[in-house]
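Troubleshooting log. The previous structure file for this entry was overwritten by mistake, so regenerating from the original sequence record. Sequence copied from the archived sheet and checked twice against the printout by T.R.
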Amino acid sequence: MEDGQPAVAVVGNPDWMRCLPEELLDLPLWNLALPGSHDSMAFCLDVSSPVVRSESRCLRVTDRFFPCWTRPCVYRWATTQEALGELALWLDAHPKEIVVVSCSHFEALTDEDHTDLVEFIMALLGAKLCSPQDTPTLRSCWSRGQQVILSYDDQQVVQQHPELWSGIPYWYADSPDPKKVIAYLEDMQRRGRPAGFYVCGLNLTEDICYVVLHPLQDMRKMTMEALLPLLRWMGEQQPGPEGGGVNIVCCDFVGMSEFCSLVIGLNYKLVGGACRMPQRYLDVKKSGEL
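Regenerated output below.
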């Protein structure tokens, strides 16, 4: 932290956009830092649905030979209808909060499924959707009562529905090693960020080698053990259009750490402030463990 700069500690985030400084209200949303979750939901999913090709080979092989391990997970996945219904209620209660929803991984969806999904989205959220023809800022969205940026990773469907945004680029390292994740993200930053919305993924991915070497470790434990260096790196970033400025930052198990508060705090760097990191992260940095 530089001398003379105000420190910003973010505590409790249900209405964080409403609380941002006036100077940030007219910036495009892709020039702000937005915390994101890697939580998933599914459309037209049932217990017999296959694991799609875009999932890791480890998961697909496990599903083939040990379905008793994977099928219970299918039961626990939230359906799109339920998740978006809860989101709509939450948005009604928080009228100045804006969310980005990404619909992707459509391998098993038919044309009819796409039609049903889009019709459901329009009926539920139509009046709240921000148009991709506009440059969304907090102030402009508030003035129109718009709260949802909805990207749909199927260009044919997007062309038929002007309310939908094209798929948002996702920087994803596909590694269980936090050092490799950071190295990948820094390499992408050196190449320059996209002009609009994009995602920096702090997500870790189990591969065959990792599973063999850690047979008793689950995804949550792997993520939490690797979280310190990932959060420390993230806390050093800055949003904005220049160079590697971050926009949406996604992580797993976001409710189990200060992740959201740290990402939100990055926005105060744009007005000469600094985000105060929790002391335990600073202590780890000083000890050289990161």
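The beta strands are 7-8, 34-37, 41-42, 78-79, 99-103, 148-152, 170-171, 199-201, 248-251, 274-275. Archived copy saved in two places this time.
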